[in-house]
Amino acid sequence: MGNDLRTSLENVTAVFAPSCISHMVLSKKDWRHVKINKVSLPQALRCWELQAHEHNHHHHHPHHHLYDPLESDSLPHDATSPSSMAGDMPTASLRIGRKKSDYNCTENRDDMDSSELVQDKEEKRKLRRKERKRRRQNKNKKRKKNSRKEYLRVRHRWT
Prior knowledge:
By secondary structure, the protein is an all-alpha fold. It has helices at residues 2-8, 41-60, 114-158, and strands spanning 35-36, 39-40.
């Protein structure tokens, strides 16, 4: 069973599987569909890998805030990467359901193209710009209204 499972996982040399998961559940076809608290095994591994990489990055660069966990190029792909050490992973470190700043860890990022991610970022950027513009316009309207009131009040006082 271990070799079949290992060959079905991409870039993973070992996997921690609790004894309650039977051989039938972890067959080559359906290991991707195993879910615990609505989180699949690949999603949990990805979340754990991102969490470990983010922690290491912050430890070495505490004032460097340009790290983007969604960029696949920024993740390590060598034999020392967390996914290759998944067999040593404690279950508590999965933190199932933990949310990231822009995306939920439980989303399957493997299904999203980089072009979809770029489009999503651009849409969010446009929405933020529109919201800032709307706030600015409302602020200017209030200023204009208040200055007009003040002008009329002062003018009325002198007439």
